Amino acid sequence: MTDKGPRSAGGAWYQHLLLAPPLVFFAAFAVFPLLFTLYVSLSVWSISGDHRFIGFGNYAELLTSPDFQTTFFNTVAFAVATVLVEYVCGMTAALMLYRSRAGQGALRLAFLLPMMFTPVVVGFIWRTMFDPSYGPVDALLRWVGLPSVPWLSERPWAFAAVVIADVWQWTPFMFLIIYAAMRALPTAPLEAAVVDGASSRQVFWDHMMPMLLPASLTAILLRTIESFKLFDVVYLLTGGGPGVGTATITLSAYFTGLRNGDLGSAAAMTFLLLVVVLVVTTVLLKVAARIGRTKPRRRVVELPQTSPSEGVPA
């Protein structure tokens, strides 16, 4: 017989008690700051501490502000451009290293080196690279006979400079996840496809790519979430300029809250960013779940037809 008396009830309470510390920690450092930020976003809150509840006034003002609309577009554009380029470059580097026969240790180290720098260091490196006076990028352009490029003073070039710096730093992250997934792939289906006469392109698209989709979606999801929080590189490279041409939501929230003292509008910016990230994450998770339920496509190899007079080939 099972004991369902006071001792069993005490054991259940003891098990619940063990969950108390992490729950208290989560409530203190996650739930409370989130709810407090929401309250601040619904108020006129100065950095001195004076505040007044105004409801959704901050959100209405932001959504009709041309500067915030430009900032929102910049954030989405940065996320799409950086994640797309990083995925293509990471997949290419992983495939090259996967097919390499020698020097894999040195190549792995070279590929992963940019990710080891902090974003502040990356910002200083690329600000030096793009400097119009002594930067090596403009010097190389002049050496080959091309005109100098205003990397940090005109919006399209400044946008490209930020994308280049972010891609240089975080392509190794994509490479690391995809290369690890490639190393874990079963070799039997790939070898069988080669024996059946599949080309290298067919082996990759029909066999490797379906098996790499879970790892690819994981890498894309993680990098998308992080790219929406882009701050350090933009702050050090362009400061959000020219104007708000390269400003992101996080950078605008920093300027609005800590420099202008308008904590209510800054909190509203961060909550709007949270909503965007949640929507994008939900969409990517649904896509990943749908792909996970889809059976991988198999390549059918047609055997040569033989007539009865030719007999069965040996």
In CATH, the homologous superfamily goes by the name: MetI-like
Radius of gyration: 27 Å
Number of domains: 1
CATH architecture: Orthogonal Bundle
Approximate shape: globular
Number of helices: 13
Percent of sequence in beta strands:
under 5%
Q: Helical percent range?
A: 55-70%
Mean of pLDDT: 85
Q: Biggest β-sheet: count, sense, barrel?
A: 2 strands, antiparallel
H/E order of the elements? HHEEHHHHHHHHHHH
Compute the number of strand runs: 2
How would you write the strand order of the largest sheet?
A: 1-2
Query: Can you tell me the CATH class?
Result: Mainly Alpha
Structural class: mainly alpha
Structure in words:
The protein is an all-alpha fold and 314 residues long. It has one domain (57-293): MetI-like fold (Orthogonal Bundle). It has helices spanning 6-18, 20-41, 57-63, 66-99, 104-112, 119-129, 136-143, 155-183, 187-195, 200-227, 232-237, 249-259, 263-293, and strands at 43-45, 51-53. Strands 1-2 form a two-stranded antiparallel ribbon. A hairpin with a 5-residue loop joins strand 1 and strand 2. Helix 10 runs antiparallel to helix 13. The longest helix has 34 residues, at 66-99. It starts with 5 loop residues before the first helix and ends in a 21-residue tail after the last helix. The model is unreliable at 299-304 (pLDDT under 50).
Topology (SSEs and partners):
Blueprint: H1 6-18, H2 20-41, E1 43-45, E2 51-53, H3 57-63, H4 66-99, H5 104-112, H6 119-129, H7 136-143, H8 155-183, H9 187-195, H10 200-227, H11 232-237, H12 249-259, H13 263-293
Antiparallel strand pairs: 1-2
